[in-house]
Design goal:
Blueprint (H helix, E strand, L loop, with lengths): L3 H4 L4 H12 L6 E5 L6 H13 L13 H7 L6 E4 L8 H12 L8 E5 L7 H12 L5 E7 L7 H4 L3 E4 L5 H10 L4 H10 L3 H6 L4 H19 L4 H12 L3 H22 L12 H10 L2 H19 L4 H13 L1
Parallel strand pairs: 1-4, 1-5, 2-3, 3-4
Helix pairs in contact: 2-3, 3-4, 5-6, 8-9, 11-12, 11-13, 12-16, 13-14, 13-15, 15-16
The protein binds zinc ion.
The site of zinc ion (ZN) has 7 residues, from α4.
């Protein structure tokens, strides 16, 4: 994703505001792009820098091929500086260095841009130093701060920036992005439904524990369907040994919940919303003898089980109760 037009599909409002400001030559001195991972902060900061320097803007889009654009893409533009955390934080020395660079006038123009990635990671000293820098009005400088968490930034810094709140990605956008990264549709859909942030969703792909959780949840459902009389044994042995803490137990129950939501989607003719697309046949079969009312009761029972886990009820007991309710 590298054009304004493309990023506008994910961030329509921020894109419109920025491209308007560029077109009218009304750029602010400092921007703060705030949004989750994957929402396009870095893409937009690069596009903004290119829009400032590109000599061949056409229909509001930088050309991506001129000397300025190419050097911005490769991170070698003399008037575009990017600061990233040095280890776990952005240190005062990094801001001091930036300031020194900026005391020389632009090498090829008077314009300068700096981008601070993970701005919330600035140490207090670094932030105070940056604040002084922001207070010196310099018409030719554009600061772009990127952050996932504005709470970590000084109010005084925030108040000097034009804040661009980026829209979180929805599950469909996460699913699509994961697919472009080579993750199969069925997995991409499940990961996106399970994690609201793309980075977390992406991690599920390599997470063997999660793959095991998915398997064991499907196994439980199959045993329920078959009316197996070894269900309690299964809970006590396999289930409890797979889930060793509260978060993991919630994860198992969340997956179970997604499955029965799929059963509900089948009941209300919204098959296109189904998450476990690989198991669609199985889900359809379940919906035949698990009525809409039964499904509602099961979803409610799973929510209750989650509540009990939170209240420290013994997990084996919670799961035994739940499976009994689901069997009815
Ligand atoms: Zn260009």
């Amino acid at each position: 994703m590298k054009t304004w037009e493309e990023i506008a599909t994910v961030q329509p409002i921020a894109t419109k505001m920025l491209t308007n400001m560029i077109a009218r030559d009304r750029l602010a001195h400092a921007y703060l792009f705030q949004g989750d991972k994957g929402t396009g902060k870095e893409v937009m900061s690069t596009l903004l820098a290119k829009s400032i320097f590109c000599q061949h803007i056409a229909n509001g889009e930088p050309c991506h091929v001129c000397k300025d654009c190419v050097r911005i893409t490769s991170g070698n533009h003399p008037d575009v500086h990017k600061i990233i955390p040095d280890g776990s934080s952005i240190k005062k020395e990094q801001i001091v260095h930036l300031q020194k660079e900026f005391t020389y006038t632009g090498l090829e123009s008077n314009q300068k841009v700096y981008i601070i990635v993970d701005a919330e990671k600035m140490t207090t000293n670094a932030a105070n130093r940056l604040l002084k820098f922001l207070e010196e009005p310099n018409r030719q400088t554009t600061a772009i701060l990127l952050t996932e968490n504005t709470q970590g930034l000084l109010d005084t810094i925030r108040s000097r920036c034009q804040i661009m709140a980026l829209k979180p990605l929805n599950a469909q956008q996460i699913e699509k992005t994961l697919q472009t990264e080579g993750i199969a549709e069925a997995n991409a859909r499940l990961f996106a439904a399970f994690k609201p942030q793309i980075e977390d969703a992406r991690l599920l792909h390599q997470d063997e524990r999660f793959a095991g959780t998915r398997k064991i949840v499907v196994q439980l459902i199959e045993m329920l369907q078959a009316g197996s009389n070894e269900l309690l044994l299964f809970i006590q042995k396999q289930w409890m040994s797979h889930f060793s803490n509260r978060d993991q137990l919630h994860e198992g129950l969340d997956l179970l919940m997604l499955w029965y939501k799929d059963v509900m989607y089948t009941h209300i003719d919204k098959e296109e919303s189904i998450i476990f697309i690989e198991n669609q046949e199985k889900i359809k079969k379940i919906s035949m003898h698990c009525s809409k009312q039964d499904t509602t009761a099961i979803l409610y029972a799973i929510m209750e089980a989650k509540k009990h886990i939170e209240q420290n009820v013994h997990p084996t007991l919670v799961m035994e109760q739940l499976t009994l309710q689901m069997q009815r």
